[in-house]
Amino acid sequence: MENNREIVGWTVKMALAVWALSLAAFAIICTYMESRTAIVLYGVWNLFVFGCAYIRISRNVTRVLGKVDECIQSMIAGDPKEEFSPQEESVLGKFQFQNGKLYEMLNGAREREEKQHRELSGMIAALVHQVNTPLTNIQMYCGFLVQDELPQKDREQICEVIQAQVEKLGWFAEGFTKTMRLEDDIRRLNPAGQPG
Questions:
Q1: Which domain holds residue 169?
Q2: Would you give the distance in Å from CA 5 to the centre of its chain?
């Protein structure tokens, strides 16, 4: 693939060369023609030359921007494609390389976030299970307490069991709170750490 900078440079040089030749031709024609007609012809010729150069450069820029768009769209779609040669030491090659690095970083961050979400869901499910067991026990023993024919000694034992289950819930809540504080402290200690 021809280097885009070379295409634009070649187009500008050709336009300047044609313009210089037409200026020399204009000087010669002015000696044989009426100067007003020669000026009009020279102006039309210059419009044609620079119009052609503009169209060629515009097409090249549009083509390059189309390739940049394809490069970005392929990354958005999750299937990055190389539109510019990696060996090409150009701004576009560097742009594509940097976009590729950014894609890898964002994709890695998304994967880490999904993994953390799965781990958090598992921890929450385990916590809910651990909390539900004492709650179920408390509910069941409270049902025994409302029975009128239950002896006082059994009531005291049931109250001890309920107290133990409440302490177990308190222990879970305290451990959960400490874990959350520890995690917050860890996040504050290294907020800018990025994987290499």
A1: 119-189
A2: 29
